[in-house]
DNA sequence: AACTGATGCAACCGCATGATA
DNA sequence: ATATCATGCGGTTGCATCAGT
């Protein structure tokens, strides 16, 4: 009765995205904001299905995304959270706002799983710290993690964090720079996707740029609201400052996406937190301890979570 | 230089879930 | 209450690149 899934329709292109397609998609999102993916192929003429567009945006084109070069600290967080949460990559990614779930999943499958496997094999005999094993990773692996026991310690619902507070709120300035980047790069350089980086947050001046999600229809408005409320799931009064990314590297600030709805959601979240502020979980303690030592772009937990 | 296997990552697929009519 | 649509998530695949021979 219904039409076939969009990805099965004739003429839908598959495979790697071209720089030209990226530009079209970014231009569209710059104008309309992320969301309403169904309409993206129709309105842009892209021969891609909506899912593909969404994935491309989330995993690669979205501003603030960091690719590769996982720091030892990020590595430690991933190992720890994977032990706690299992393969809930989106939940894990919510602690590392600059990383996508796909990236984390790939990194786990290609690097960390092997490291841990190797550790488990080695630990039967003697464990040798390889040069590429981070202190955090080693510490974690050495101490071991009784996952079940740790799960028992989880006194608050993890669903609190299950909304990926990803950086949907695309700064259109960043996207403008992204476009500039594409234009500057030769097609070949653009195709070399790993080189892409957004830099220099200070010299942009797109006249019509807005730093908030532009909702042009009730539906998009709803979408934007969902996104903002999703952010608010982990937000309270200190989040503005605590969740700001390194501005100098061109990352967007969480503070910029705040709107009336988020303020309201913040208030609700605050109220909720006041009503049922759970004791600090083992996970939060661990993350906070780590945060004291190093802050390289992961989601910092507000200090007053500890009180 | 050519071949081959290993590796890493982008993208796809199928299913689940929530929203809406 | 139900069907349909839109989106999100996790597992998997395919291809480009790298490293070793």
From TrEMBL:
Biased composition (Low complexity): 201-211
Positions of the UniProt region annotated as Disordered: 197-221
A GO biological-process term: response to auxin
Boundaries of every Myb-like domain copy: 9-61, 62-112
One Gene Ontology term of the molecular function aspect: DNA binding
Location of the HTH myb-type domain: 9-65, 66-116
Subcellular location(s) per record: Nucleus
TM segment ranges: none
Protein name: Glutathione S-transferase, N-terminal domain
The organism of origin for this protein: Musa troglodytarum
């Amino acid at each position: 009765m219904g039409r076939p899934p969009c990805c099965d329709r004739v003429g839908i292109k598959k495979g790697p995205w071209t720089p030209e397609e990226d530009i079209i998609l970014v231009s569209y999102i710059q104008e309309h904001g992320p969301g309403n993916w169904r309409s993206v192929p129709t309105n842009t003429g892209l021969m891609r299905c909506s899912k593909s567009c969404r994935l491309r945006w989330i995993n690669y084109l979205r501003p603030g995304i960091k690719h590769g070069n996982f720091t030892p600290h990020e590595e430690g967080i991933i190992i720890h959270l994977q032990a706690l949460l299992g393969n809930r990559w989106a939940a894990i990614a919510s602690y590392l706002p600059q990383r996508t779930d796909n990236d984390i999943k790939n990194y786990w499958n290609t690097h960390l799983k092997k490291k841990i496997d190797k550790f488990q094999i080695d630990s039967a005999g003697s464990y040798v710290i390889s040069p590429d094993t981070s202190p955090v990773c080693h510490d974690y692996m050495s101490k071991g993690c009784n996952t079940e026991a740790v799960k028992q310690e989880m006194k608050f619902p993890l669903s609190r964090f299950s909304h990926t507070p990803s950086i949907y709120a695309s700064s259109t300035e960043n996207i403008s720079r992204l476009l500039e980047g594409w234009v500057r790069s030769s097609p070949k350089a653009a195709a070399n996707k790993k080189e892409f980086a957004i830099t220099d947050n200070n010299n942009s001046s797109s006249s019509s740029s807005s730093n908030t999600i532009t909702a042009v229809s009730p539906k998009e408005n709803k979408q934007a609201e969902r996104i903002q409320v999703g952010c608010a799931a982990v937000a309270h009064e200190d989040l503005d400052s605590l969740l700001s990314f390194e501005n100098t590297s061109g990352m967007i600030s969480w503070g910029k996406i705040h709107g009336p709805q988020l303020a309201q959601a913040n208030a609700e979240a605050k109220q909720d937190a006041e009503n049922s502020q759970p004791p600090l979980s083992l996970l939060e303690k661990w993350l906070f301890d780590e945060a004291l030592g190093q802050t390289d772009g992961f989601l910092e937990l507000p200090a007053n979570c500890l009180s």
